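Please produce the structure of this protein holding manganese (II) ion.
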Amino acid sequence: MKGKVLVIEDNEQNRYLMNFLLEKHGYSVIEAFDGPQGVKLAAEELPLLILLDIQLPTMDGYAVARELRKNPTLEHTPIIAVTSYAMAGDREKALAAGCTGYIEKPIQPATFMARIEQYLEESPGESRP
Ligand code: MN
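Below is the modeled complex.
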């Protein structure tokens, strides 16, 4: 196992696809269906990287990113917003909320893992066990 990735996503198909790709490449996956659950799991599990849907029920992805960044132990954890390709304004808002970068929906299976591994390589927290 290469480490844990937390997927915070309310859409079952997207969650399934990300989970499938990550596990196929040797990562273990923790899943949250909404923001509060994601914030709780992030603090408990200290994942290598967090994939964060922006359109979530009860608490949107921006609020989730801001909440995650309040936790000092998650300070260097890459948070990757998963946003619709059409929503260009969402990306700036995601970065302003504390996200490290973004990946466009629909998820492209051919390039998804390369993007994730690039974010992991660039992460200053990558040496963490
Ligand atoms: Mn969603």
